[in-house]
Amino acid sequence: TSRRTLFGMGGTMTHVEGLLGKDGEGFIRSRQRLMGLNVTLTAKNINDLLRVTEGSPLFITDLIRLMRFISPNDAISAWAKREGHEARRFALGRELELLSREAKSVLIAGCVTSGVTSRVELESITGYSSDVVISALHELNKLFLSPKPRVIEGEERYEISENVRLLVRDVQGGTELFRRMEAAYKAVSGQLPRIRDPKIDGIVRQAVFKVRQRDYDDARKLLENALVIFPNQPVLIGFLGWVFKAWDPPRVTEARELFRRADSLGVRDSQMYRHWAGMEGECGDWSTAATVAEKGLSKDGDDKELLFLAGYARSRYAKVLLGSAQMVGARQELLKAKDYLRRALTPADELLAHGRTLNAKAYRAMVLVCEKLGLAEDVYRFFEMWAEEHPEDKAVRSERDRIVNRFPLLRAVQ
Q1: Which of 60, 62, 94, 266 has CA 20 to 30 A from 251's CA?
Q2: Euclidean distance between CA atoms 103 and 142, whole angstroms
Q3: Beta carbons of 381 and 357 less than 8 angstroms apart
Q4: Contacts for 382 with CB less than 8 Å, ≥ 6 apart
Q5: CA distance linking residue 71 with residue 321, whole number of Å
Q6: Would you call 142 helix, strand, or coil by DSSP?
Q7: CB 41 within 8 A of CB 72
């Protein structure tokens, strides 16, 4: 469809007429009332407005919004000098000039996200307090740049219209403020879980943001209320367990109970098992930590972090057995650990930036496991790979100094 018939495409497109005559005037009056524009529009103003906008509802709305700042005659004249998209760019630029820095930042933060945005998410992206974000949203709402919030699953959500979103990205995309908000959103969203069900995903995202702001009780209430609507939903139960784990101080007993419940309900979320295994390790229960990591691997056998956690937990449990002279059991645990850690390692040519830290930790654990097993050649091989791939890792030097006397070949590694 198009408002203009393009050359050579008359038979493949539908021409859409703009709003003309009484329909056009009715739409203008409705936008004027909606925006509270208390100016007198003459019949000539209306005819000129429809002419320069070609009756496009999108253009009419933008031009009427511009009249909040300059007279109808000046607004129509400014629009006529530009036409179409350039006129919209001008109108938005004029509006942005009058916004406070906080409102401008919140508007851009709402436009760099991929859809419906919560106030908590806007706070995390901009770094502003709740009061500042609320004030900025009121300012934007007065200019109809941000709609009034909708309450979804008990949370206020804001959705910038796609037309405004695209225009803001076009006008502000090259600015430092836009780049900063975009980088903040990527940093925040990159750490968020990805859940297929959009309703569950939205609830979990809000819980994560609340925990980051140390609003543990609000996060708990949000998830518990959601479980009334979605009873026995394993992902929600698992993330409620994570909230209790993240609590300061951690509420381990409640977290463990919820993790077990989610597991019994068949949750397939690898991230939950990572949090659970990590929690058990922090409590010093290495046998349980390993078992939990292995439960997660039964759902996703290629998860590198779970493979590392399983290997590391087995190696720590082996140390406990060695302390009580259970040599056979310790060796069995070390062999299991070696296999998990080998699978956790990513080849250097496939390693992405975010996997470097995990790889370095896996190399260190592998060297220690091979040392306990007395496998000199493997100690040397994995240490050499570790040192070559991660020369910046301070642990390379400290571990080399510690075990060099046991394995003289390491003297060759600089």
Answers
A1: 266
A2: 11
A3: no
A4: 363, 366, 367, 370
A5: 83
A6: helix
A7: yes
Stated as kind and residue range, the H or E segment containing 209 is: helix 198-212
Query: What span, in angstroms and rounded, lies between the C-alpha atoms of 111 and 162?
Result: 9
Tell me: the pLDDT tens digits for 166-192?
Answer: 888 888 888 888 888 887 787 666 556
> Distance between CA 195 and CA 107 in Å, rounded?
26
Q: Do residues 311 and 337 make contact, with C-beta atoms less than 8 angstroms apart? A: yes
Distance CA 79, CA 273 (A): 58
| Dist CA 371 CA 402 (whole Å) | 11
Q: What is the dihedral of CA 337, 339, 344, 345, to 10 degrees?
A: 110
pLDDT tens-digit series, residues 121-135: 888 788 888 888 888
Which residues, other chains included, contact 268 with Cβ-Cβ below 8 Å and sequence gap of 6+? 299, 300
CA distance 85 to 323: 74
- Whether the upstream peptide bond of residue 149 has omega within 30° of 0, thus cis, is no
